[in-house]
Each structure stands twice: as structure tokens, then as C-alpha cells.
Amino acid sequence: MPTLAESRKHPAVQLRSWMALASVPGASWAVFDGGAKPMSFAEGYAKAGEVRATTETLFEAASLSKPVLAAAIHDLVRDRRIDLDEPIASHVDFTPDAATRTITPRHLLSHSSGLPNWRTEANSDLVSGFRPGSDFRYSGEGYTLLARLAEAITGQTAAEVVRSRVLTPAGMTRSRYGWAAGQTPMVAWAHDAGGELMADAGPAKFQASRDAGPRRPVETWTQGDRIAAAKALGKPALPVFMTPNMAAGLWTTAGDYARFLSFTQRYPDMNTPTVTVEAGLSWGLGWGLEHLGSERFAWHWGANDGVANLFVLDLASGAGLVVLTNGAGGQRVYERAARVQFAREFDALTWLQP
């Protein structure tokens, strides 16, 4: 069976079939090989039955936002602004718990801090579930803490740090953490498992959060602004309710994200296996790693309400695949795409929970 890249004359044929089976309205994807310019494609609808998806349509990156933030942290490490092994508490007062205050950027980047994924209850302390560095526990909270560290170190907002150190130099010209009131960018809406529009998710959810805060671009919002906006919406002042959410709040295109993956070659420490997940799966300093013999892949998935994304990067050849979808069933689409593109099975896809 030809890969998606080899089917470049009609690359949508396979994706179109898988999208129909999984009730996914729209998808954008990119394939690339080493230093070659990525080939980008789109199929279906940005908004079911109404607006077609194009290669310029912005999709929610969801947790694909995390490696982008990680690259910015590595850039600050390269400039000796951040020490991977210095406790975060040296710069950010985030917990009263003594053991949790030993958490370092290395722990946060590798999801070995022991912090929960997200807190949702007001006045709940941020506390590690185990000795930092001793185990794996996926944590969105951990990445928002990295964002606060970047702000404390630079005096900029985390979104401004990411833009200056990653988005702009990587050529991610479409990518952003949101848009101003009155702007109408081409964006993908979220859809449920049956392919039905989720009218309160995706763009609508972002716009409600934006309109609750100060009348400035969300990339300039401080921690105080983010807290005030969450409270205005009747939410606890916790990271999962704040905008922009640096662990899950990027909007991007498949082509932009492919350019990002090529850009990350300058940060090889992201590929350092740091904590074991299961068997041949580990986590590096910014993304997941799968290794079998001489084969080594970096990967990450993204899942917001009605959104499912994946990238896979062959660390030996530099070849990669990015798949962005706007349907809750998108995992079934990107799983098929990854298997076809690389002509192999991935343990990571088995490990991921549907």
C-alpha cells in the first residue's frame, strides 16, 4: 500500500474514507521527509456542512501545544536563562508542600513531577503524587507551571516568549493563541463522536474566554489577567480555566506544525529518554518517545473536546506526519494515517486510551 506521501496526486482518498467511517467532518495533515518542504493537505469541513477546510484553516493544537512550549523552554536553557535542574520554586511560588517544591523543569518537561493533569476544585493545592523524578504521570498543570517559569525569568508573557523563540523563527506564520474580537480567521469547529457540531466548544469557547478578559490580545495577558478572566466566567482561578492555556491553547495548521518539527532539530535534548512509560515507550524532555531496536520515533497526541490530533517524527530520517482533526473520532483517523505512512505498528497508539 502506498504511503500518504506517495499518494500525493490523490492524497485525500484514504483520509476521506477513514473520516467518513469515524464521523470526522474535517482534517488537515502534512507529510515531510528530512529537510524537504512539507506537503500539506486538507479534506472535509471546518464546520460540518457549512465551511470547507483548507490548508490555511486553524485547528486547535490541543496538547500538541506542549512540545511547542517545551522548545521555548529549551531555547531559554540554551541561553542559560533556565537551569533544567534548578527547582521551579526558586522563581515561582506555586505550592506550600516542601516535597513538591523540589520539582525542576526536567521533571515537568518529562511528566515525572507527580503533579495531576488538571485541578478543577477551587482552593486545591498543587501537590506531587510521588517523589519527583521517580515515575511518569502526564500533567497539563506541569506545563502551565513551565509557562509561569518562562514569565518569571523573562518578564514577558509565556505566549510572547513562545512567539519570539519558536513561532517566528520556525516560520509558523499562521499559528497563534487566539484572535481579537472582530477578527474572523478560518478556524475549525469541534464536533462530537457522531460528527455533530459542538457549538459551545472550540472557537466559541475561546471567544467567551477572550471576551471575559482585558481588551488586549490574549498573548499579552498576565497571570493576573488570566485569573480575572476565569473568575469573570464563574470559574476557579486554576490553570485549566485560564486563557491562553499554554499546555493546550495553540491554534495551528498542519503545515506550520510540520515546520515546527523540523525546527526542533536544534533542541536534541527533547529526544533524551528521561522516564519510562511502558516497555519501549518513554518520555523525553518535551514529547513521547518510542524505540524498538534501532528505530526511534518522537510523538505526541492532542485531545480537546471534539478535537483529536497526532504527530509522529522518525528521529533517524527526519520524516514525519502531522494529522489535525476536528472530530472526537479523530483518533481512529490518525491511527490509520500513522500506520500507513510509516508501514508499521506503534505501541504508542495502543497505549493511548480512546
Account of the protein in words:
The protein is α+β, with helices and mostly antiparallel strands. It is built from ten helices and eleven strands. The protein has helices spanning about 10-20, 65-80, 105-110, 140-155, 160-165, 205-210, 225-230, 255-265, 330-340, 345-350; strands at about 25-30, 40-45, 50, 60, 250, 275-280, 280-285, 290, 295-300, 310-315, 320-325. Strands 3-2-1-11-10-9-8-7-6 form a nine-stranded antiparallel β-sheet, with helices on both faces. Strands 4-5 form a two-stranded antiparallel sheet. Mean pLDDT is about 95; it is low at about 5-10.
Key phrases:
354 residues; 10 helices; 29% helix; two-stranded antiparallel ribbon; 11 strands; alpha+beta
Mean pLDDT figure: 94
Poorly predicted runs of 5 or more residues: 7-11
Largest sheet: 9 strands, antiparallel
Terminal-residue CA separation: 26 Å
Which secondary structure elements does this structure contain, and how are they paired or packed?
Elements: H1 12-22, E1 26-32, E2 39-47, E3 51-52, E4 59-60, H2 65-78, H3 105-109, H4 140-154, H5 158-167, H6 203-211, H7 223-232, E5 251-252, H8 254-263, E6 275-278, E7 281-283, E8 288-292, E9 295-302, E10 308-314, E11 320-325, H9 330-342, H10 347-351
Antiparallel strand pairs: 1-2, 1-11, 2-3, 4-5, 6-7, 7-8, 8-9, 9-10, 10-11
